[in-house]
Amino acid sequence: MKLDAESSTLSPLPGVLSHGLVAVSTFGLLSFFCSTSLFFYLTYKLLVWHRYARVKTPTNQFLLLIYNLLLADIQQACAFLLNIGALQNNAIIVRTPLCFAQGWFVSIGDLASSVFICMIAIHTFFGVVKNYRPPTGAFYCCVFAGWAFVYVMGAIGPILHGKDFYVRAAAWCWINNAYSSERLWFHYFWIFVAMFSTIIIYSIIYIWLRTKSHKGDISKKTVHGATPLMILYPLIYTVCTAPLASLRIYALAGHSVSLGYFCMAGTMIACNGWLDVLLYASTRSDIVFAEGPPSEETGLETFVFMGGSGGRKMGNTTSLGQPGYDRNGSQLGSLRTPSQESESRERLYGLNQIGMKAEVTVSVASIEDGGTGRSTMGTETSVSSPVTPTWDRRSRRSQESRGSIV
After folding, report:
1. Which residue has the higher pLDDT, 224 or 155?
2. Comparing C-alpha atoms, which of 176, 195, 312 is closest to residue 242?
């Protein structure tokens, strides 16, 4: 197939591309580094949690969606990172492995990023508005279907048209200008569907939160911490993705677009990766950077905006129960011996001398002691004023009786 002037090799690069592709490549490299770093960090944590968990529980679904979004962002960043090759060669050379790889990653990365951002919006809607979490099996099927859809859309073109499908498309390699219908139906139609769906879904969540807040069904503090995110999530995605998508549609309509505009739009979409890392790592840090496996909860209490605490309450929580593991995967010991039990109780003494305004609840679970069959029954006490707790007086009498025996 003979290529037209806009799809054939461009050598040497014009000045606008020599400078513009530097910005595109730089932000592509930044996105690749940030997305890859967080992806490998989460991979390590997921493996550690799976290996050392005594009770196997389903992984937090939102965490898995972020994990898949990072994988999509890595592929998208690879597409724009490959512009370094054009800068080194001072040319965009078609019908080469580099050009084909860039076209493939552009198609896969852009579409996959849009699909999983839309899936995150849908999942957030069900978690916040409907208080519903999909069954684990159905959730995994949806994730698999998302990836299958992305790769099928990306593979149809090369299968039908061969090596001439991915050639130069203005400022970098992508789908051949001769296949304008494939550009629309295999790529940008679905990106616009995902984009408008995401905007609509977050708008519904925002309106629902404001309505519930005015009715007093949800605390204003919680709503004020979550509602800005319902604007921020679709805003960042739209600002990064819409310019390039709009330029391509404008070009499909027969209009001419300068290479400078393509470089600007390419720079913005190349920022998708590092902005996703910054956004989700900071606003859903309780899930992303949890020391242990995060719970399956994905509701409003998991949102944090501008250093807020989300739904987390002030204070520390002490749990006495079955052994677990620390942040490094090392196994933590359990309460087994009488001396350990006594030590654990004695650390609670003196609570009556502490003045407090909030309610403090201390729960001690029943613990089986080895094979002797002896169990230590716990109590639950709420202290709202500096009054000596019942369990504290009982423990003091126990100490005094042991002292008199000695």
Report:
1. 155
2. 195
Q: How far is the C-alpha of 274 from the C-alpha of 270, rounded, in Å?
A: 9
Q: pTM of the entire structure?
A: 0.74
| Cα 26 off chain centre by | 23
Query: Phi then psi for 355, rounded to 5 degrees?
Result: -80, 140
Residue the block writes with tokens 């319902």: 230
3-state SS of the chain?
Answer: CCCCCCCCCECCCCHHHHHHHHHHHHHHHHHHHHHHHHHHHHHHHHHHHHHHCCCCCCCCHHHHHHHHHHHHHHHHHHHHHCHHHHHHHCCECCCCHHHHHHHHHHHHHHHHHHHHHHHHHHHHHHHHCCCCCCCHHHHHHHHHHHHHHHHHHHHHHHHHHHHHCEEEECCEEEECCCCHHHHHHHHHHHHHHHHHHHHHHHHHHHHHHHHHHHHCCCCHHHHHHHHHHHHHHHHHHHHHHHHHHHHHHHHHCCCCCCHHHHHHHHHHHHCHHHHHHHHHHHHCHHHHCCCCCCCCCCCHHHCCCCCCCCCCCCCCCCCCCCCCECCCCCECCCCCCHHHHHHHHHCCCCHHHCCCCCCEEEECCCEEECCCCEEECCCEEEECCCCCCHHHHHHHHHHHHHHHHC
- The string of pLDDT tens digits covering residues 251-291 is 888 888 899 999 999 999 999 999 999 998 888 887 888 88
Distances (CA, A) of 41 to 45, 178, 223, 276: 6, 42, 31, 15
Angle at 164 between CA 161 and CA 169, to 5 degrees: 120
